[in-house]
Design a protein that fits this description.
0% of the residues lie in helices and 48% in strands. With 221 residues, the chain is mainly β. It has no helices and 17 strands. The chain folds into two domains: 99 residues, Immunoglobulins (Immunoglobulin-like, Sandwich), CATH 2.60.40; 97 residues, Immunoglobulin-like. Strands 1-14-13-16-17 form a five-stranded antiparallel sheet, with no helix packed on it. This is Secreted protein.
């Protein structure tokens, strides 16, 4: 299983276009020849769409519907503002690397995501009565970083083909790291950072039938 999915600056052969109109996100895919690329299923879905607000407070992990002819749609009510959208797909026989797409809703100016994140000091989070604790030994640049999540009083259920999902971005919403567990039995994730700085991390677990998203802010030294 591919446990790490990083965005980078290598040239892609598939080009997504994202627009928002009347409560629906529309994603249109074309390859370098202007043709519709074939997609392969990844973690039970043909497309994973990550949407985050400019202040990194709002986060959505969506799975748009295939409308045919390279177009995918997702109904969602987004407030006016600026967003980064990451189209996470696996095109067949074509290179593709996830890069941020900036959209502006309601006539707002496209800002540059100038956030000043503050690292968490408490790595125990309780949401909807379910508690998760993050444990890690080191968070240093250019070294393998292990995130071990201790889920209290519940057993994570399989969700999209894994026991959990981790999405990480930097302060300006440019980097995209999508990580899956190292095994099918433990909620342990491993990744690597190529730059120092502050990062926002969202951790998704399905607990007692409900998908819960736990946000963390970490600092990589």
């Amino acid at each position: 299983m591919d446990h790490k999915h990083h965005s980078n600056h290598t040239v892609s052969e598939v080009f997504p276009d994202v627009s928002y109109n009347q409560g629906e996100l529309i994603i249109e895919l074309k390859d370098k020849s202007g043709k519709v690329p074939a997609l392969e299923v990844s973690h039970e879905k043909i497309m994973h769409l990550i949407v985050m607000s400019s202040d990194l407070s709002d986060y959505h992990h969506l799975h748009p519907e295939d409308k045919g002819d390279g177009k995918y749609g997702q109904r969602i009510d987004l407030s006016n503002g600026n967003y980064k959208v990451f189209v996470d797909i696996n095109p067949k026989d074509l290179n593709y690397f996830v890069k941020p797409i900036h959209i502006s809703i309601g006539g707002t100016h496209k800002d540059s995501f100038k956030n000043k994140l503050v690292a968490d000091t408490n790595f125990t989070k309780t949401i909807n009565g379910q508690t998760v604790e993050l444990n890690t030994d080191t968070m240093e640049v250019n070294r393998e970083v292990t995130f071990n999540f201790d889920v209290k009083d519940a057993t994570p259920e399989p969700y999209l083909g894994a026991l959990g999902h981790v999405v990480i971005t930097d302060e300006i919403g440019e980097k995209f790291i999508h990580v899956h567990p190292m095994s099918e039995k433990e909620t342990v994730f491993m990744t690597q950072f190529d730059e120092r700085g502050m990062y926002k991390m969202w951790v998704e677990f399905k607990l007692k039938g409900e998908v819960i998203v736990y946000p963390f802010v970490i600092e990589v030294q």
